[in-house]
Model the fold of this input.
Amino acid sequence: MKFKSVLTRGIVCSAVLGAAVVSSPALAADGEVNLYSSRQPFLMKPLLEAYTQETGVKVNMVYLTKGMLERLKSEGLNSPADLILVSDIGNLHNHEKAGLLQPVSSATLSANIPPQYRDPDGNWFGLTMRARVIYASKTRVKPGEVSSYEDLADPKMKGRVCIRSGKHVYNVSLLASIVVAKGAAAAEAWARGVKANLARKPQGNDRAQVKAVYEGECDVAVGNTYYMGKMATNEKDPVQKDWASSVRIIFPNQNDRGAHVNISGAAITRSARNKANAIKLIEFLSGDRAQRIYAETNFEYPVKAGVPLSPLVASWGEFKPDTAYLSKIANQRNTATKLLDQVAFNK
Ligand code: FE
Done:
């Protein structure tokens, strides 16, 4: 398994006959699979090494921090990528909408991944889960004072809420989940209410919101669960441990629909020339060995039932997830984006 900053563009079609693409047989060898990943090398390295060790299939991974969609669009059927790995249903759905994916069916994937975390048509598959939770100041938020997303929009929270850009893929998906649960009008009222309660203009990433709670700028923040693990164990930037210990995680809406859960996932590209190996790789990533590595390396929740959580993640307690199908939430992302514009959330 190799990490390259740029995948050799020597993999090209030797002929295009009508719609059929004929690739060079030597380059589409059985023993390889080409991956575009926005998931970081530190996480993927142990997973891909384990896959190669188990199957003998070599993985060529291109790590793309941004621009994957544009790149796949411009490469078209000449793209060397067989599969993609990205975070958030929004990114998976955008690739699907752009016609860059192909559906596959796999009994292993159907067995390992609960149906709400994969596309019913087989275009994408969730591999890890993360809840979008409330980080509350241990000292300034009383137990029980905040227990739901709705509380973030309640006037009692005026000037006390921090959140990253409303347009960030994580927040669009969160709002889309509220559209699914309560309808567009209620979702709009929620976005308006949260905006009215903000301590500052939306800015920074998820961790920056927790930092702002630590610094007293706000009392509650919205963020994904794994960041708690990343902050609490951060040896490179130990001040993040202080940010983490200044807050507690509140899993929202435990008395009704549950906390919004999103995924990181995988999908087979339309251009895939090593399709069988690509499916095999996704199957491997959904299996016990890989699920355990994901859980331990990145503080995420396994999608496969029965795989143990990392002890730190387990220490946050059990929670009830919103069980709305992510495919349904994905279909409300456009509406959510429009609502965020309508309320001028970031302004
Ligand atoms: Fe993230």
In short: The longest strand covers residues 125-137. Residues 1-29 have pLDDT under 50 and may be disordered. Residues 87, 224 surround fe (iii) ion (CB under 6 Å).
